[in-house]
Task: inverse folding
């Protein structure tokens, strides 16, 4: 890099932040119209933070952000410059409800130049969303002429100030509240929101808007000590309320969510989280503002991470924050309200598992979230309760309280105020779904054999104790992939050998005589654990992750292997290493396992009755070392999620590239066929545990290639088993022989036609 980037001014510290907040309090308490107070606020921020520009954009009807006040930009732009949500950097901040800090804003892909503002000379920009009640109400921005990096403290301060500005916006003086609450749609017309399926199922009910965020009336505290006392009291009542919830979950027989709630309680006791809140109080905030501030800070620090595990942790923390705020306010959750309808469709920006369980489970029909991922805890709990969940952008704006809503969790659709024809289609779909579920239940006990008599092993992918009951219920043969990193990610410190041993032993206990393949820690890149230090990486997917961390920190991997060996004690154990790129890496990992085996013997502890060691096939280089690899391993499992991204050089976490290439492309199928042949020749068992194994059409292709073992998430078992029992695999194999050399982008359509013509139920 040839440009130099100045560091942020060292002068802006905790004391400066406190001074700025105190002055803001005076402005808010003072006289003047909303506009006048906003003008004072932006000038104050610019002066105190040494910024050349400070601007406040306020949300108007139709999702438009209007420049309402500025210090430093042309005053003629005020009330004239307007940006759509998603347009420009300001629109991006509003669209994602997250802060942005840039040392060279004009080079950012979202930069939208507005000549009327005269903003061309300003290179650096830091902006935060103005949030209230879970909605974005505007954006607050500071800019500097020179290139400089903003400190975390500056961004945090802006977030705190944005909370104050949110109160000003909410007072309704700047924009008529009616204007922003109107959706822009004729209020009572039916609407369809197309979203993403997070948990399957189909349900109808009346909308209940879950708005956990409480209004924080006072931001700056008079007396830090009394705020700390209030915080401690609220934490104590929150803990006992979570304990009550745990007891209630146990009473309700919710074995699985209980496990999650326990993790959740651990979060509530997280010292790091609590000490940051206490520190913020000592900086001069009220207890409520401090809780919110730490939440904003966590959100900001983690917002760029797209990994679903991290995002789900973030949602748990969000839930906890809201809970703590409720306790600080001495208020009961809105779920206690006796006025809720009998059929509840919850609509929320985000929500944690405990919040969901606050609602009467007998009345809960579905959940619509603006922010959530399929592996988030709230979705896992929803699945355990058999409730569909859909992620739909803009749901809070488009759905009004008590609107009738149909949630189609199978197709990621939400129908708001559905017309009669949709309601009729809904009734038909419910009947069809019930019939399908009956079929899945019936085939659970039937052999997993293709129509032409080829036995297929169906295994499960798991990562939490909550998944284990599915093993018995689904009729799967075992666990083909236990992702050990998931339990690690919900902890704030690295679990010691005893904690790990207990956990793995419990998994083996629950699995009984069904085999479990434990994959060693697959973290790194954007799936970093808070207690393993790593620098930021330009290409996290190609970075320091999985086995690379294990080999660089052998004590970490050895502790995990030691725990696995101890947990197995006299039982069979299968260990699988992730992201192995070369045989030498496998050898190095295996050496650590051998050392631990020796140690086990020396200590006179019982070894596993049988130890199988394998590796994932995720990194293409390994495919060119197959003879050497096959001579060493007891089994292999294809991680097609990663293998696809590396084969096509196409980031699986980037929405622009994630679906650009299809795993059913000729290149991918050719490569998998070679692998199957090599494993068959060497007599090494091969399985596949990427997402494609759980999609009926993809799984069909895999069987046609020659795979005989598929590992998938529990809900996929019924559909995949239905598919394979209707498949003549010999006919498919013959058909596919003519496909491998085709030049198509994808063979999906051809394979779908085969399924249709041959009565394969996909
Ligand atoms: C894979 O890469 O296909 C896989 C199963 O591993 P993960 O999705 O956990 O990276
Ligand atoms: Mg992988």
Result:
């Amino acid at each position: 890099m040839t440009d130099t980037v100045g560091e942020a001014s060292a002068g802006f510290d905790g004391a400066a932040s406190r001074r700025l907040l105190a002055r803001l309090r005076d402005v808010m308490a003072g006289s003047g119209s909303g506009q006048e107070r906003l003008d004072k606020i932006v000038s104050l921020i610019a002066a105190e933070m040494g910024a050349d520009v400070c601007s406040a954009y306020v949300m108007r009807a139709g999702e438009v952000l209007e420049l309402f006040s500025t210090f430093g930009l042309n005053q003629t732009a005020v009330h004239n410059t307007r940006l759509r949500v998603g347009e420009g950097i300001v629109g991006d901040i509003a669209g994602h409800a997250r802060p942005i800090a840039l040392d060279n804003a004009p080079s950012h892909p979202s930069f939208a130049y507005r000549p009327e503002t005269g903003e061309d000379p300003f290179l650096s920009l830091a902006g935060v969303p103005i949030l209230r009640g879970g909605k974005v109400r505007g954006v607050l921005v500071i800019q500097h002429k020179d290139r400089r990096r903003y400190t975390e403290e500056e961004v945090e301060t802006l977030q705190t100030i944005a909370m104050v500005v949110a109160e000003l916006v909410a007072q309704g003086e700047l924009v008529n509240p009616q204007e922003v609450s109107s959706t822009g749609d004729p209020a009572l017309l039916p609407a369809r929101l197309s979203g993403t399926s997070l948990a399957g199922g189909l349900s109808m009910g009346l909308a209940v808007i879950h708005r956990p965020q409480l209004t924080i009336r006072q931001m700056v505290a008079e007396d830090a000590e009394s705020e700390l006392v209030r915080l401690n009291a609220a934490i104590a009542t929150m803990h006992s309320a979570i304990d009550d919830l745990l007891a209630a979950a146990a009473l309700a027989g919710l074995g699985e969510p209980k496990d999650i709630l326990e993790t959740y309680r651990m979060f509530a006791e997280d010292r790091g989280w609590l000490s940051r809140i206490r520190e913020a109080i000592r900086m001069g905030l009220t207890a409520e503002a401090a809780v919110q501030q730490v939440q904003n800070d966590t959100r900001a620090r983690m917002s760029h991470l797209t990994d679903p595990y991290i995002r789900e942790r973030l949602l748990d923390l969000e839930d906890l924050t809201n809970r703590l705020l409720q306790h600080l306010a001495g208020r009961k959750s809105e779920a206690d309200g006796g006025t809720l309808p009998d059929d509840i469709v919850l609509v929320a920006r985000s929500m944690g598992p405990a919040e969901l369980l606050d609602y009467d489970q007998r009345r809960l029909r579905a959940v619509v979230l603006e922010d959530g991922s399929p592996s988030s805890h709230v979705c896992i709990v929803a699945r355990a309760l058999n409730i569909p969940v859909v992620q739909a952008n803009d749901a809070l704006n488009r759905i009004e309280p008590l609107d009738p809503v149909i949630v189609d969790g199978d197709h990621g659709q939400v129908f708001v105020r559905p017309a009669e024809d949709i309601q009729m289609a809904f009734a038909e779909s419910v009947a069809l779904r019930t019939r399908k579920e009956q079929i899945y239940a019936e085939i659970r006990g039937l052999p997993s054999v293709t129509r032409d008599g080829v036995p297929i092993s169906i295994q499960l992918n798991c990562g939490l104790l909550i998944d284990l009951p599915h093993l018995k219920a689904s009729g799967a043969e075992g666990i083909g992939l236990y992702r050990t990193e998931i339990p690690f990610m919900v902890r704030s410190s690295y679990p010691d050998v005893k904690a790990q041993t207990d956990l793995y032993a419990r998994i083996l206990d629950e699995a009984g005589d069904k085999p479990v393949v434990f994959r060693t820690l697959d973290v790194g890149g954007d799936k970093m654990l808070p207690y393993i230090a790593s620098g930021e990486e330009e290409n996290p997917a190609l970075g320091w992750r999985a086995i690379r961390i294990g080999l660089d920190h052998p004590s970490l991997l050895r502790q995990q292997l030691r725990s696995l060996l101890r947990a197995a004690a006299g039982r069979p154990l299968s260990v699988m290493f992730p992201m192995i790129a070369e045989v030498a890496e496998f050898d190095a990992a295996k050496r650590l396992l051998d050392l631990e085996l020796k140690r086990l013997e020396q200590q006179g502890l019982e070894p596993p009755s049988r130890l199988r060691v394998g590796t994932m096939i995720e990194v293409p280089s390994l495919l060119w070392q197959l003879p050497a690899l096959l001579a060493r391993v007891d089994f292999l499992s294809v991680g097609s999620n990663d293998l696809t991204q590396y084969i096509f050089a196409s980031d699986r976490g980037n929405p622009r590239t994630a679906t650009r290439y299809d795993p059913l492309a000729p290149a991918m199928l050719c490569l998998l066929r070679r692998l199957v042949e090599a494993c068959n020749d060497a007599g090494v068992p091969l399985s596949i545990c990427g997402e494609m194994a759980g999609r009926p059409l993809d799984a069909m292709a895999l069987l046609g290639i020659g795979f005989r073992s598929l590992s998938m998430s529990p809900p996929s078992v019924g559909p995949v088993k239905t598919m394979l029992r209707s498949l003549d695999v010999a006919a498919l194999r013959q058909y596919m022989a003519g496909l491998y050399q085709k030049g198509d982008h994808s063979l999906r359509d051809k394979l779908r036609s085969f399924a249709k013509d041959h009565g394969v139920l996909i």
